[in-house]
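Record type: monomer structure entry
Structure origin: computed from sequence
Chain ID: A
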Amino acid sequence: MSESIRYLVEGVVDGSISDTELISWLKTVHSEGISETDTIALTEAMRDSGETLSWDLAFSELVVDKHSTGGVGDKVSLILAPALAACGLKVPMISGRGLGHTGGTLDKLESIPGFSVEMDSEEIQAQILDIGLAMVGQTERLVPADRRMYALRDVTGTIDSIPLITSSIVSKKAAEGLSALVLDVKFGRAAFMVELDKARDLAISMVAASKGMGITTNAVLSSMDAPLGCAIGNSLEVLESVETLCGNGPSDLEELVCIQGGLLLHSTGLAEDRDTGALMIHDSLHDGSALECFRKMVEAQGGDTSILDSDYSLMAGLGLIDTQLNATSLCVAGSGWVHDIDALSIALACQRMGAGRLELGDSIDRAVGAILEVQIGDRIEEGEPWITLYHRNEIERETVEGLIGSIALSDEEFQQVSRIHEVLG
């Protein structure tokens, strides 16, 4: 079947396979599945459908990347990539845009005034040689088969097929010429894969396909019931990322960054084990080296580095990005320990304010969003604010009503637990 898969992918690119034929095949894969061997063959054919990045043998073993299946407040990439570069790795991170209630790395980066995510392959390679880091969008010549297949999957209800998800994600990462990859596969009520077992199946499939491409790969299964960190919304998440790069980030966010970075440093031989690698990443966040790598990238890609000034604070940074926002705080009706915060309700509220898109062509307002004033495990008293919404116009009643019941309190002290459920690979 491998040869027929390669023939099909070639037909997707050159147009010899019609939409009707391709839709029929996609629906068959969605309903019946395909084997691990054929999933690897599909991934390889999609990788080879366009150009691939190549690297000097002197550092090809140091080229790494990460991928997340998406979540609410998930700004790990913005922190992890410069931290990895600060530790000696090369990171050609090619990312996507947000759709639905999940934010996209490109949308976050483009909230930095002047920042450009458009680079061709030669420019990406040159910047990696220069500063070890680039965060960009997919080029027209990289995995062209995926663009057509994804567009048809979107309109035919075949998005949630594990083999098709696997080949779409891994083919683009494999085209980057990676030595090692870490996958952050979310589960929970605000994740793409709500159920843990399905998230694990997806993680296993992606790890197998990545290894089939010769990439050392680990997957982290992490929970997405509550927002990650305190900021939700593109500009706000950039600003919280900068705070984290200054060593002042939320503990749950820093943990994910350090563990994923530790896995990559161990995979490439720069750390003797995951924990040593995690400590190296932690140190880069607290000694200024990761922030300096981020600054170099922002400058190289045309962004305004003033949000990285030494007297930086989150709210001051927001003023640099947009001074026309309104702020509305919501208060709790009782007192207690924060037991739960519903990520999905908050994401949908931000989407109603303009932070998200329903279709890839939709415009968004990158400045709007929300800041959690408390996290799980904190104590809050009646009448104190638990969330502040930053919005453009008068806030809609439906937006506020949608957040009623989004925070749950307990009479007993409650400790925040690790988001990391399992590490595979």
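Annotation 1: The domain at 325-410 is CATH 3.90.1170.30 (Aldehyde Oxidoreductase; domain 3).
Annotation 2: The CA atoms of residues 84 and 425 lie 20 Å apart.
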